[in-house]
Amino acid sequence: MLKGVIFDFGNVLYRFDTYLFLRQVVEKVGGETERWIDFFQTTRVADLYERGKLTTDEFIGRIDAVSPRPQPKEFWEKTFLDIFITPIPENISLVRELHGLCHLGLLSNTNQLHFEGFIQNLDFLPLFDSLTLSYRELSLKPEEKIFRRALENIGLPAQDCLFIDDKEENILAARNLGFRSHLYRDPGEVRRLLQKEGLFPPSPA
Asked: How far, in Å, are 17, 77, 143, 155 from residue 116 at the CA level?
C-alpha cells in the first residue's frame, strides 16, 4: 500500500534554468559562454556546492576568482538565485491535496543558497513531513546514500513510497532500491497515477 510520496523539486515543483545564470554572468561580468561552461564542467564547483563540500563563500569565491570583472558577494547570490522561473501549479496543488492523506517528502539536489534564499520561503514547503537535501546529506542523487536517507527521514520502507523525479538516472536508482518511481513528464500523469494508487478518487467519466 502506498503510504508516502517523495517529490523532486527542480522542474517537478518549480521550473528552473541554470542557463539564466550563465547568460547574466556573460552579460554583466564578461567572458564567453563556452568558457564559463567549461569552467563549471571542469571544476565541478556547482556539484561540490550541492554536495555540501563547499560553503557559500567558498563557492562564490571560486567563481569570482576567474571572473573577468570581480563582483561583490551580493551580485553572485542574486544572480545564482535568479535561475528559478515559475512554479508548476498543478503539482503544487497535488502536494496540498496529498497533505494529510499520506507522508510527504522532498528529495532534492540543491545547495545552501538555493534552499535558504528561495526554497524554504515557499508557502507550500511546510506541507512536507521530511526534507532530504543533498548539501545537508553530503550526497547527490542518484547515489544510494541519499535515497536511504530519504527513507529514514520519511520513516517508511521503499516499497511504500512513490518517488517522482524528472531525470531517468534518478528514477532507475530509486527503482533499484525498491521504490515505486515515476519519471515526470506531465502533471496529468502524476494525478492519474495517484488515482490508480487509491490516494485520489477517479476522475468523473
From this structure: 18, 11, 23, 24
